[in-house]
Amino acid sequence: MRITDSMMSNYYIGNINKLKERIALLQRQISSGVRIEKPSDSPTGAVRVIRHNDQLSQIDTYLKNIQTGLSFLDQTTFALQSIQDEVVNVVGKLEELNNPINQQNMSLYADMIENSLRLMLDVSNSKADGKYIFGGTDQSGKPFSFSADGQTIEQNTKINGLVNVRISQSIQQRINITGLEIFGTIISTDGTLDKNSAVGSVVTQSRNIYDNLGNQYNLQVNLQKTNSNQYQLTYSIVDGGGNTVYSSPTANQLVFNSTTGALETVDGKAPSIININVPSNRINFNLDLSQLRETDTNQLLLNANQDIDIFNQLKIIINNLRNGIPPTDEQRAAVNAFNSKVVGKLSEIGNIVNQFSAIESMLTQQNLDITENNSQINGVDVAKAIIELQNQDYLLQLSQKLAATILPKSLLDYL
Question: Is the pTM value of this prediction over 0.85?
Answer without folding.
Answer: no
